[in-house]
C-alpha cells in the first residue's frame, strides 16, 4: 500500500456565480506522476492552485500528508507550502535576483539554512538541470527553456515532497520544450511525486503512471496512460483526443 | 494670492483662536500679579519675543554685523528699550508681515513692531499700544519720471503698488482715482517693480520711502497728498488681547521715548546701517547668505525626503492592507493632503499644532513638507507595487516566504526600480516646494534671497543667483538618481 501524499475531498471552487471546480475528489500517492490534461478553460490551473491554497477553495478539503490545509491561517500555510514545489507556465523567476539568489532565497529565509550550505545545494541543483555556468547570470539574460529549468531548480531547492507543474512548456519556443521535458523525466525517474498539467501528450503517455482528464469543472476520467490514449471511456475524452491528434 | 492667504490665516486664527484661549485660560486664573498671562509668561521666562518682518527700512531691516545678519532699525531699537525697561531679554522672530498677527495670537511672539498701523480691523484681533511714531505717507517714483508726477492726483490710468494688506494699499485703492493698484508682499519687491517699470509709483510710509530713495539714486520721493484719518499713518506696538499689564509697561516706555526725543536718534542710527549696508552690493560679497540658504534648503529637503519616504511607504502599505480601518485612514489622509495646498498645511503645523507644542519654525517646516510629500510618495509606491506581476507574489508564496519577506526581497526591489524615476521627480519637486517654509521665517534659500534683496537694494541679481543655486541642487540630484537607476539596470 503506497503512502497517500495528497487527498482531495469534494473540492469546489466558485468565482462569483461560476463554478469552476465541482465536488472533485482525488488522491496522489507517493511516487505518482500524474498528467492532468483537458481543454483550456477546464479548470486545470485552478485545480492545481487550490491544492496549495494559492486559491481558497469554496468547499471541500485538501489534505497534505494527512493534514487538512483548508481553514489554516496564512502563517500556517507558509509552513505547508514549502513542502509543495510549484512551477508556473510563465516561470515567475525573480528578475531582481541572480539565478543563484533565486535558488537560495527561500532556503535561507524560510528554512534558515546557512548561506554557504544553501549555495552549495543550489549549485548542485543547477548542475542537475545543466545550468551551473549561469549561477551569476540574471533571469533576463536567459532563454525561455533555461528560465524554466531554473524555476524547476528553485522549487527543488526547498526539497519538496511533491512538485506541481502548470503547463511548464506552453510558453516555450518548440525547440526548447525538449530540454525542459528531459529535466522533468529525470525527476520522475528519481522518484519525485509530480502532478503535471500539460498539453505534451508524448510526456503524458511515456512518463506518467496516471492521466486525469478534466473538463466541465470535474475530473472526468482517471486512468492509466495506455488505456487513456487507446481506449478512452468517456465521449468527451475521445473528442478531446481526436482534436489533439488532428492538430 | 496675497488676499487669499490673509483669508486663510484669518480662518485659521478663528479656528485655533478659540481652541487656543480655552487652552491657555487656566494659566490666567491663578495669575497673582494680574489678569495678564502674557506678562507673567514673559517675566517667568526672562525674555520677550518680538515678531517683525525685517524688509522695511528704516523701521526694520537686516544688516551684516561680524558676518552675521542681524535685525536693525527704529522698531528694533524701540523693542530693545521695551525689553530693557521690563527687565528681560529680547528675542526676535522674523516672519512674513502677513503671518505676524496669527503669530501673536498663537503666542509664537509676545509683541509686534513692524511699522504696523493700529487699524480698526486689526484691533478686532489684537491690542495696540499708544502710537509711537507718525510718519506720513509718500509716493516713490523713478527719478526719470519726476516731471510727470506731482502727487496722488497724477496717476490717472497709471499703475500704483503698495504692500499687500497695508494701510498704504487701502489708501491707494480708495484715494488714487483712475489708477490700477497692485498689492505686493515685500518692500524690496515693490522697489523692484518700480525699477523695472512694472508700476509707475509705490505708496509707502515717508521714512521708508526716503530710506529707499537715499540708497537708490534712480528713485525719488514725492508727497502723497492723501487725506489721512487719525491712525492712517501712525505706528504702534501690537500685543495679544487681554494683556493690560504689558500694555501699561510698553506705553510708559513709549512715553519716555517721546519725552526724551529718542525717535530721531533711532532713525539716524538706522540710516547709518543703511549706508554701511550698501558699501558692497556685489553678489559674491553675500555668498555667506546664499550658502546658509542652500544649507537650510538642503537640510529641509534631505530630512523631508527621508521622513516623506518612510511616511509614504507606511501609507502605501496601509492603503494596500486588507484591514479596512488602516485602508480608510490611508485613503483619507492621502486624499486630504493632496487636496489642500502645502502652504496651508505648513501654517496648520506651525500655528495650529504650535498651540499645543511649541515647534520651532524649522521643525514645523520639516514636518509639514514630510507629511505632504508622504502622501504623494505613498501613491507612487502603491502604483509601483501594483505594477508587479501577480505571478511574482504567487511564486514567492509557493516557496513558503512570509508576506513580509515577499514584500522585502521580491516585490519592493522590483517596485522601487519601476518607480525610481517618478520618485526622483517627487524629490526634485520637494526641493523646489520646500521654498514655501520661508513664510514662517525658516532661513532657507528663498528667505536669504529676500534678505539679500533688501540688504543690497538690488532686485534681479539675487534672484538670478538663487535660481542658479536651485538649478544646481535639482540637477545634481537628478544626476545622482540617474546613477542609481543605472545600477538597478545592472541587476
Ligand atoms: N481569478 C479568477 N477569477 C474569475 N474567474 C477565473 C479566475 N481564474 C480562473 N477563472 C476562470 O476559471 C475558468 C478555469 O480557468 P483555469 O483554471 O485557468 O483553466 P485551465 O487552466 O484549464 O485553462 C476559466 O473560465 C477562467 O476564466
Ligand atoms: Mg491553465
UniProtKB/TrEMBL annotation, chain A:
The keyword Transport applies. GO terms for molecular function: ABC-type amino acid transporter activity; ATP binding; ATP hydrolysis activity. Its main location: membrane. CDD domains: ABC_HisP_GlnQ (cd03262). The keyword Transcription regulation does not apply. Residues 6-241 form the ABC transporter domain. It holds the Pfam family ABC_tran. This is ABC-type polar amino acid transport system, ATPase component. SMART domains: AAA (SM00382). Keywords: Amino-acid transport, ATP-binding, Cell membrane, Membrane, Nucleotide-binding, Transport. It is found in: Cell membrane.
From TrEMBL, chain B:
It is found in: Cell membrane. GO terms for molecular function: transmembrane transporter activity. The keyword Ion transport does not apply. Its main location: membrane. Residues 294-481 form the ABC transmembrane type-1 domain. It is a multi-pass membrane protein. The chain crosses the membrane at residues 289-317, 348-371, 459-478. GO terms for biological process: amino acid transport. Pfam families: BPD_transp_1, SBP_bac_3. Keywords: Amino-acid transport, Cell membrane, Membrane, Transmembrane, Transmembrane helix, Transport. The keyword Membrane applies. Gene3D superfamilies: MetI-like (1.10.3720.10), Periplasmic binding protein-like II (3.40.190.10). One of its GO terms (cellular component) is ATP-binding cassette (ABC) transporter complex. InterPro entries: AA_ABC_transptr_permease_3TM, ArtM/GltK/GlnP/TcyL/YhdX-like, MetI-like, MetI-like_sf, Solute-binding_3/MltF_N. Belongs to the binding-protein-dependent transport system permease family. HisMQ subfamily. This is ABC transmembrane type-1 domain-containing protein. It comes from Pediococcus argentinicus. The lineage of its organism: Bacteria, Bacillati, Bacillota, Bacilli, Lactobacillales.
